[in-house]
Amino acid sequence: MxxxxxxxxxxxxxxxxxxxxxxxTVADGEFVVLLGPSGxxxxxxxxxxxxxxxxxxxxxxIGGRDVTDVPPRHRKIAMVFQSYAVFPHMTVFxxxxxxxxMAKVPAARMKQQVTDAAELLHITELLxxxxxxxxxxxxxxxxxxxxxxxQPQVLLMDEPLSNLDALLxxxxxxxxxxxLLEIGSTTIYVTHDQVExxxxxxxxxxxxxxxxxxxxDPLTIYDAPVDRFVGGFIGNPPMNFLDATLERRDGRLxxxxxxxxxxxxxxxxxxxxxRAGQPLVLGIRAENIEVGGPGAGxxxxxxxxxxxxxxxxVTLQLGEQQLKATTRPDERxxxxxxxxxxFDAGRIRWLDRDTGVAVDAELAAPPAAAGAxx
Length: 374
Known about the structure:
Blueprint: E1 4-13, E2 16-26, E3 31-35, H1 42-50, E4 57-62, E5 65-66, E6 77-80, H2 92-102, H3 107-120, H4 136-148, E7 154-158, H5 166-183, E8 186-191, H6 194-200, E9 203-208, E10 211-216, H7 218-223, H8 228-233, E11 240-249, E12 252-256, E13 262-265, E14 279-284, E15 289-291, E16 298-307, E17 312-318, E18 321-327, E19 338-343, E20 349-352, H9 359-364, H10 367-370
Parallel strand pairs: 3-8, 3-9, 6-7, 7-8
Antiparallel strand pairs: 1-2, 1-4, 4-5, 9-10, 11-12, 11-14, 12-13, 14-20, 15-19, 16-17, 16-19, 17-18
């Protein structure tokens, strides 16, 4: 049992709350990604779980055991750092065996665990080499093998792929996901790369300013961001946000989007009809917008067309606002073309314009939490 539970974990640096009252539970064998921009506190939180940072408030439990004041070596964890941190004077075998040797594991068992880890990472043929005789991707595999050779209950990974080039990062992402499924360790993975987070994690915890803003599976985080920050941080391109006002007309709900026109909302989510007449923000992903020829409804003017191979990314002017939409690569849209736009109304995210919090999140949250979510 290697469940991780964080209860109001807080880490202060003078008056700065690097980690601010974080509550998070990671189930046994689960892979959770801490995602957020630089400086949001995700690495500090990871180091606190490892025992490399002493928290100021709260509790950290691993496998039901309170380890808040337990030294790192007694927490039964392994950590992979952003830098490879391999020892240049040791062979690959010796690097992988380092932690086992420090733990005084018997030689025969140590050799078996090193061999097993090397086989999982496909680096068996490198065991006799020195790190200088390996590539960057191979050194990263060595660092991961050193961690998993310890057979830890908990594996902590701090941006382990950030030093690799794009193609190698893609390859290692798939390898790591396969590996972590195979070994079954409870894993917390820190990254600022949303593609890594969406493609690898069972769940994602999005952080900002030391707090966890939203926790959910990748599809929920992408489709139903709890506020404007999450919607704007996740996705490439980020979610579009348009100022809108709702009106009830003939029993229907209509969204007015400035000079761009209006949009009927056939099946409004709960609580939305009560916001008629109030300023809201309409959030929608680029792929949930259909771009057509001239016609009625919402209208936009093409400003930029970016061919990206599998699709085109079109930037459109809607009155004083802009949005991005995707089209098929063979669809011909020229600069300054006026086009009709159809939004998938069921994929719209409605947010309060003042707080930035999703309308349904406001309804679900206790009154005190609703005002703090933006």
